[in-house]
């Protein structure tokens, strides 16, 4: 009986590892599939939003001529 178990255990371990790897691979493929579907849905929603409801351009502001002094060294007198 001991000889039989010692011969069967490596095959059982290899079988369990193969089933675990196959299950993990299938689970990963489902994750990629659902991720791609969700990404495609978000892309389509964004495309439809930008196509039919474009952003209104902001009114342009006048640029003033002159120097810009950007410093914190100035003290109030």
Series of secondary-structure elements, N-terminal to C-terminal: H
Shape, principal axes of CA atoms: elongated
* Rg on CA atoms, Å: 33 Å
* Mean pLDDT across every amino acid position: 88
Between the first and last Cα atoms, what is the distance in angstroms? 100 Å
What's the total helix number?
1
Low-pLDDT parts are none
Describe the largest sheet.
none
Which structural class do the helices and strands define?
A: mainly alpha
Strand residues, percent: under 5%
DSSP E strands, number: 0
Characterize the quaternary organization of these chains: single chain
Helix content: 55-70%
Describe this structure in words.
The longest helix has 51 residues, at 2-52. It is elongated, with a radius of gyration of 33 Å. The chain is mostly helical and 77 residues long. The chain is 66% helix and 0% strand. It has one helix at 2-52.
List the helices and strands and how they pair.
Layout: H1 2-52
Keywords:
about 80 residues, about 65% helix, about 0% strand, mainly alpha, single chain
Short description:
This protein is 66% helix and 0% strand. The protein has 77 residues and is mostly helical.
């Amino acid at each position: 009986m001991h000889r039989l178990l010692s011969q069967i255990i490596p095959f059982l371990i290899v079988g369990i590892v193969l089933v675990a790897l196959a299950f993990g691979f299938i689970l990963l493929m489902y994750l990629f599939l659902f991720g791609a579907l969700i990404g495609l849905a978000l892309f389509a929603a964004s495309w439809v939003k930008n196509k039919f409801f474009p952003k209104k351009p902001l009114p342009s502001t006048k640029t003033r001529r002159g120097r810009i002094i950007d410093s914190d060294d100035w003290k109030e007198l």
